[in-house]
């Protein structure tokens, strides 16, 4: 398993490849590979999506994604 940390100014559902992964501002588990990340709800954030290859992460060093 791999780890991502998705930050946003408010709690929002994180979508990975269109499926709910968890909540923002928490470390989340995900399978290794290429994924498309977005947030659920109103699209009042930038960037509109993040495409990333997730590999070689740890709970203490997750892949970090920031939405503004």
Compact overview of the structure:
It is built from no helices and 7 strands.
Task: Walk me through what this model shows.
The protein has 68 residues and is mostly beta strands. The chain has one domain (2-66). 0% of the residues lie in helices and 51% in strands. It has strands at residues 2-7, 13-16, 19-23, 27-30, 33-39, 50-54, 63-66. The strands form two sheets. The protein has a four-stranded antiparallel β-sheet with strand order 3-2-5-6, with no helix packed on it. A three-stranded mixed β-sheet has the order 4-1-7, with no helix packed on it. The radius of gyration is 11 Å and the shape is globular.
Tell me the span between the first and last alpha carbons. Answer: 27 Å
* Helix proportion: under 10%
Low-confidence stretches: none
SSE order in H/E notation? EEEEEEE
* Mean pLDDT value: 98
Largest sheet: 4 strands, antiparallel
SS summary, helix count:
0
How much beta, percentage-wise? over 45%
| Number of domain units | 1
| Spatial sequence of strands, sheet with the most strands | 3-2-5-6
Radius of gyration: 11 Å
Total strand count, please?
7
Shape: globular
Structural class comes to mainly beta
Draw up the topology in text.
Blueprint: E1 2-7, E2 13-16, E3 19-23, E4 27-30, E5 33-39, E6 50-54, E7 63-66
Parallel strand pairs: 1-7
Antiparallel strand pairs: 1-4, 2-3, 2-5, 5-6
């Amino acid at each position: 398993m791999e780890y991502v940390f998705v930050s946003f100014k408010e709690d929002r559902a994180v979508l990975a490849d269109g499926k709910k992964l968890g909540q923002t501002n928490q470390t989340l588990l995900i399978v290794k590979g290429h994924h498309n990340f977005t947030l659920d709800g109103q699209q009042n954030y930038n960037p509109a999506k993040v495409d990333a290859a997730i590999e070689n992460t740890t709970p203490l060093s997750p892949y970090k994604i920031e939405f503004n």
